[in-house]
Specification:
The chain is 34% helix and 23% strand. The protein is of the alpha+beta class and 176 residues long. The protein has a 4-stranded antiparallel beta sheet, with helices on one face. The two termini are 28 Å apart. Belongs to the ABC transporter superfamily.
């Protein structure tokens, strides 16, 4: 049985303007494939473009050049709002700095359930909360944590909240 490509990154470039006429080539022509069920590691020294590559793959940055194909569809091609929403559900990112990526004004339950709400993945409030409790347990936290705020947790616990948030929408692909 042939392996099925989930993600194809072809000659991806991500450049940033920094001042007059200066350009930082954060990612300069990277190419790789990731297959369904595969774990792929992108390694390199600090500042070499690993996080920028991840952010460009999931469209937090618009690629300067190159292609990103997810299930054969160009991620950076023109998309309707519906297509973008579905793409955002299928591709999730767990950010390096969990504190910066968690809304301090939201409870952990609301942070985790935000994607569930956006994508209509729970029919009732009870189903929504049950899913939140399951996700908390999956990442080693308990249901009592649901009504607390991000600042009340350690760095490791906040990282687990970020993982639960990413898993909540049942993505096909996760960047961590």
């Amino acid at each position: 049985m042939a392996r099925q490509k989930l993600l194809e990154v072809k000659n991806l470039k991500q450049y940033f303007q920094v001042g007059r006429g200066k350009v930082v080539k954060a990612v300069d022509g990277i190419t790789f494939d990731i297959y369904k069920g595969e774990t792929f590691g992108l390694v390199g020294e600090s500042g070499c473009g690993k996080s920028t590559t991840g952010r460009t793959i999931i469209r937090l940055y618009e690629a300067t050049e190159g292609e990103v194909l997810f299930n054969g569809v160009n991620v950076h091609g023109k998309k309707s709002k519906k297509e973008l929403k579905e793409l955002n559900r299928k591709m999730q990112m767990i950010f390096q700095d969990p504190y910066a990526s968690l809304n301090p004004r939201m409870t952990v339950a609301d942070i985790i359930a935000e994607g569930i709400d956006i994508h209509g993945l729970a029919k009732t409030k009870e189903e929504r909360m049950q899913r939140v409790y399951e996700l908390l347990e999956t990442v080693g936290l308990n249901r009592e944590h649901a009504n607390r705020y991000p600042h009340e947790f350690s760095g490791g616990q906040r990282q687990r909240i970020g993982i639960a948030r990413a898993l909540a929408v049942e993505p096909e692909f996760i960047i961590a």
